[in-house]
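Thread: Modeling a multi-component assembly for a lab meeting

Hi all, long-time lurker, first post. My supervisor asked me to bring a structural picture of a complex we are working on to next week's group meeting, and I have zero experience with this. I have the sequence lines for every component (561 residues in total). Could someone generate the structure of the whole assembly? Inputs are pasted exactly as I received them:
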Amino acid sequence: MQSNAALEYDYSVAKLFTYTTILFGIIGMLVGTLIAAQLAFPQLNYLIGEYGTFSRLRPLHTDVVVYGFMLSGIWATFYYVGQRVLKVSMAESKFLMFMGKFHFYLYFVGALIAVVTLLLGITTSKEYAEFEWPIDLVVVVIWVSWGISLFGLIGIRREKSLYISMWYYIAAFLGVAMLYLFNNMEVPTYFVSGGIGSIMHSVSMYAGTNDALVQWWFGHNAVGFVFTVAIIAMIYYFLPKESGQAVYSYKLSLLSFWGLMFVYLWAGGHHLIWSTVPDWMQTMGSVFSVVLILPSWGSAINMLLTMKGEWNQLTENPLIKLMVLASTFYMLSTIEGPIQSIKSVNAIAHFTDWIPGHVHDGVLGWVVFMIMAALFHMAPRMFKREIYSKKLIEIQFWIQTTAIVLYFTSMWIAGITQGMMWRAVDEYGNLMYSFIDTVAILHPYYVIRAVSGVLYLAGFLLFAYNMVKTMTSSKAISEEPTNKTPMAA
Amino acid sequence: MELRELQGYAYFFMTIFLVVMLYGYIIHLYRSEKKGEKDYEKYGNIALDDEIDSKPIEKNPKLSKEKEGANK
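Re: Modeling a multi-component assembly
Sure thing. I ran the full set together rather than chain by chain. Output:
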């Protein structure tokens, strides 16, 4: 680079992933709302034949929100934050620019194929690992291309030290790579059987309890390394940057990082409490889940203390509000998870609606709020326009917060009711209720959940509208804002 | 000794080992800061001062002269 006067960060890949974050967010949440309504009103299962049944749409919902919306959000922020904290532009390397774009386009095509195959009912039936073997191979290439971008950018950095967010992005990359490879070890049946059955079909390389163990080692840590680690990477950058306050304690951020890395991978066994896995392994899952409170709250408290002396920003800046609420919901769900992992509590909670309740206060409150705040922060810097409407963010905030509260409270009540009814016995030791009794009693709570889904989706559509208007018709800004994101009233 | 018993011991000592490692790390962080060997808190500014022409908190020594560019 001879003249550095023109050197700028290049956000073209970050922009592409921003578009897919919005697109997959809408699709994933729409499907989620529909299946929530199906549980309350079963006749909604038959809208579009086999393609609209709960069993087809449920994996579509989880995979589109996790691997569509969240991964897009993670990569949009990575291609933005990565350049900035390493102080290097993607425009400085033609190769990295190519890899970034290759990463995006392969991901987009792969995601579309995944959606189609799930709708067609082509699935391995392993939760969050439903993709059949040819798609798994594509996923590996997508992941490796992210790795090349990640380490390539690190390789040409100007800043010697890696900011804490980069550590978290690296951990997300390595963690998911390892988990995904081990859990998706599968045998394509067509080839080993000499041409019998579908070419797409495969069976897991592990059997029985071993398969369950590997599956939940993956399942729980996919949550850990996608919903937690990569989102912490975002908040460690965006909250300090938006508020103008350096992270409260950098040492605490390092400690929490290593704490999380040590502990998280051992906690997956809590998904298999009271099942046929060895008892010591269930205990280990339970104990490590409780220990996990420490590093989780270490990060969350560090974020809240970053706002020390600057709490006025909470009322002035809706992005700070989104991030502080995200951090608070992170605390809520990381105390709730360990409580559910205690064996005696798990005896009631397991298989009930309290579990999706727990997942959703984490994802709706923590993950989605953080990703939306990040994209709102990035938009004026990427598109050189101010945020279209502050008021819309405020409205969206309250609609979605109400939705989350309705979601998790209804599921808490539903789950505990369900758990207690399944266990209730009369004086002779006979079960007092049949399964359908619980279904009848839970109906109102399922209706509340469906309503909360509609509210949350409405809030997300406001976000999408605000983002599109920001990209296309908002007032242009001449200079890049330093901290607070500019927005029209 | 049965395999399960062995696993129990391994689990116990592994936990102790990891706890010692983690506490050791806290001590290491605070001690090296107290001795003046390292100032961890300055790295927090990487996020705040992140323009492409900002001076790096610590310059990457492997960077070629040509690429040092904007932030010499």
